[in-house]
Amino acid sequence: MENNNYMLSVKNLKKYFNTPGGKLHAVDDVTFDIPKGTTLGVVGESGCGKSTLGRTILHLHPKTSGQIIFNGRDISDVSKAELHELRKEMQIIFQDPFSSIDPRMSVKQLIAEPLKIYKLCNSKEEIEQKVRETMDTVGLASRLADSYAHELDGGRRQRIGIGRAIILNPSFIVCDEPVSALDVSIQAQVLNLMMDLQEQRNLTYIFITHNLSVVKHISNDIMVMYLGTAVEKADSKELFKHQYHPYTKALISAIPRVDIDNKSDRILIKGEITSPIEPPNACRFAPRCEYATERCHNEFPQLEEVEPGHFVACHRVRELNNL
Amino acid sequence: MGENTLLSVEDLVVKYFLRTSTCEAVNGVSFTIEKGERVGLVGETGAGKTTTALSILDLVPNPPGRIVSGKIILNGEDIRTKSIADVRKIRGNDVAMNFQDPMTSLNPVMTVGDQIMEVVRLHNDIGKFEAMDKAKEMLELVGIPGERYLEYPHQFSGGMKQRVLIAMALACNPKLLIADEPTSALDVTIQAQVLDLINGLRERLGMSLLLITHDLGVVAETCDRVMIMYAGSIVESGTIRAVYKNIKHPYTKGLFGSIPRLDIESDRLEPIKGMMPDPSNLPEGCAFCERCPNAVEACKTQRPKLEDIGDGHLVACFNPLKEEA
């Protein structure tokens, strides 16, 4: 029944947090599929729920409702023991290479830790062998094996994070802003590494970032999120050519461009992101949208396919874009 | 020095003297900023951008840092020969600085209005109520309703805090605004709002801008001229068009190759291999030599000087890139 070409299918996933002010809708009714060996880029600004989405998929946060199907198997409600086994298959790379790594462990220990947790090796030699291989794969010189994180720069630390994620040979990795703490030249090195790994190991990525040029570079499909909801989803090239949702348009036009001959006309959005606590059941972008009508303030728009493979959640999408 | 020159930095050398080593943060940097000009200073972490900016205001933390040599001439007078009291008058009044992190640059236990008022009263001999009106006016100027005067920084979002800092920096009509990564901590749509604001205000108030950033796109959209800095030296500078369209220095090319482009389809990025040298242990020759695909014999032993290759386009390289066919 389930399509076997999908590594991950997420259906109507919701994650609400309880706060003193009411329920905070961090992820609200998000649905998508990721084909095997491809990358889904998730973009949005701070507080749009993109990190929560990644973490909820990995069961790092318990979900509120919805279905998660991983490799053809429903993992929405798995036991702790099953989850432990599943984690071998699904890993995460964290944003901040400065705080996500234990400062008291050496590079060697850090990379070996997953192997020890899963007791996958029978001897110390085997562990060392695997650690050496992994360090080599992620481009860490073997002389650094006994170094500690504080002796290394951000790019190398992030390589440790990648090493820890791939040593168990997972098939799926959630990359949560893996390059945003790095300088551009180092960022490019790490992005290239991640793309090489994907090609060699047929990895499937969810790539979460606020950096639109990075996401265009690495993703096959892109999903744009705004305040917990998916507003637009399409093939990466298609999305950068045609944007249909007013928020996506503004977001893409706001990227500062290096190309000085082709200046885009920036669309400035008024105001700031509204509160995600107990939001009205309506379009989340409506308060800032210049095209908003009565209907936008009263009815929640569902994602609909306006062109093959191009999904938009906007009541006025057809009328505004002459589709 | 031309009549229109507002600031001229000549052969600036700044070092941080640490217990075991000496960090050469800025090594002989020279540049000028004209009245009303917008200049971008681009480089990666540790290139010496912020130290250069701090030197202009004589704010390099001392110890361990010290301006070893060089001149900083503002309006025809060398700041380094002035007394502390005189320099204080310049800070905030003639030259204002906007720091990177809006979350930590504001005092959390003072209302934003009082913080702006503090600046106004320090530099102008005016009464409390007049200063309060001025503070409200500044808030309105950066697009914050004046009645939020009595609120505390935690009640503002990141973009709003950055606006408050801009209001504070502009409160005394400075001739030069130094903005140190003003938008790096902000989301793109908010970044667009803040850049728009800085640009609009600069035009209205006619001040000069020194924008420090690592984002080549931001510079392209806001500045007239750009200076690329690497390991404490300016390696290339010129008008935006000259530098972006006719890249001469291999490091500049590496920087451009590292950014994923929206306008060009490419499969792989072309990053610069290796890393920036340790500033306490700079090589004898060109600091970029080890990572440079164009390096020649001279690069290992001599430091290249900035030379004009026409149209005010300056490059410090023994073997600059050729014109692309």
Q: Count of DSSP E strands of chain B?
A: 12
CATH topology of the largest domain in chain A: Rossmann fold
Strand content of chain B: 15-25%
Total helices of chain A: the number is 11
Largest sheet report of chain B: 8 strands, mixed
Strand order of the largest sheet of chain B: 6-7-8-3-9-10-12-11
Helix content of chain A: 25-40%
Distance between the termini of chain B: 37 Å
Secondary-structure-derived class of chain A = alpha/beta
Structural class of chain B: alpha/beta
CATH superfamily of the largest domain in chain A: P-loop containing nucleotide triphosphate hydrolases
In CATH, the architecture of the largest domain in chain A is 3-Layer(aba) Sandwich
Low-pLDDT parts of chain A are none
Produce the secondary structure layout.
The complex is a heterodimer of chains A (323) and B (325).
Chain A lengths: L5 E14 L2 E14 L3 E5 L6 H8 L7 E6 L2 E2 L5 H7 L3 E4 L13 H11 L6 H14 L16 H13 L5 E5 L7 H18 L2 E6 L2 H7 L2 E6 L2 E7 H6 L4 H8 L40 H5 L5 E4 L2 E3 L4 H5 L2
Parallel strand pairs in A: 3-8, 3-9, 6-7, 7-8
Antiparallel strand pairs in A: 1-2, 1-4, 4-5, 9-10, 10-12, 11-12
Helix pairs in contact in A: 3-4, 3-5, 5-6
Chain B lengths: L4 E13 L4 E13 L3 E5 L6 H8 L8 E10 L2 E2 L5 H7 L4 E4 L13 H12 L4 H14 L16 H13 L5 E5 L7 H18 L2 E6 L2 H7 L2 E6 L2 E7 H6 L4 H9 L38 H5 L5 E2 L5 E2 L10
Parallel strand pairs in B: 3-8, 3-9, 6-7, 7-8
Antiparallel strand pairs in B: 1-2, 1-4, 4-5, 9-10, 10-12, 11-12
